[in-house]
Design goal:
Shape: globular
Number of strands: 0
Distance between the termini: 38 Å
Structural class: mainly alpha
Length: about 210
């Protein structure tokens, strides 16, 4: 898997890897750790070994192209941290989401893809914490964006939408929605989503 590959690379490289290179390599683990539900390791890596290193390098780097790559890695790591905290039900996820939004605004970064990723992560956090209506409002606000019509974004949106229905105990028409989303997940090669929809369908069968 991804985590094992990253660990192998770092073990082979040893002391030849700079702190920045190590941070960039480790950042590849965060999404995999989220998918595994390994929140503690992901949170510790992001807070101690990835984000501070990237922020330090960003503060002193003057190469626009390289700074853009560093910022992208920092942003993706911050989004992963939002989701990792959210999976724990920790409201710190919302604090990090707001801080990330503020940094985008301070730097006059108006990237629609960044905005979608950030809002999807925030919607997920709101769902898990139990602020369902706020999550629904965010998902609704994204529907008008043409860039939103992307399989990866739609897969995430579907999952959050389904979780909102389940957590709200809305069962009318839910089976059909879950089958539709499971089929979409399969076509989009979203194995995690497909597995979660199966669990939701099992829960729904039990409820009935």
């Amino acid at each position: 898997g991804v985590c094992e590959t990253v660990d192998m690379i770092l073990n082979v490289a040893g002391d030849e890897v700079s702190p920045l290179e190590k941070a960039l390599i480790l950042s590849r683990k965060l999404t995999a750790l989220f998918n595994e539900g390994n929140c503690e390791e992901g949170i510790n890596l992001a807070n101690n070994d990835i984000i501070p290193i990237l922020e330090e390098e960003l503060s002193k780097n003057n190469d626009p192209d390289f700074s853009q790559k560093l910022f992208s890695a920092w942003f993706d790591s911050s989004i992963a941290l939002v989701k990792l905290y959210a999976l724990q039900g920790n409201s710190k996820s919302l604090e990090i989401a707001e801080n990330t939004a503020e940094i985008l605004q301070m730097n006059n970064i108006e990237d629609v893809v960044y905005a979608i990723k950030l809002n999807l992560a925030k919607a997920f956090a709101l769902t898990v914490i139990g602020k369902i209506q706020e999550s629904v409002n965010i998902l609704s606000s994204l529907e008008q964006l043409s860039e939103y019509d992307n399989p990866k974004f739609i897969s995430k949106r579907n999952l959050i939408f389904a979780l909102n229905l389940v957590f709200s105990n809305v069962t009318d028409g839910l089976r059909e929605i879950l089958f539709e989303y499971a089929k979409y997940a399969e076509n989009a090669n979203d194995k995690i989503g497909k597995h979660i929809y199966k669990l939701m369908l099992a829960w729904l069968t039990y409820q009935e």
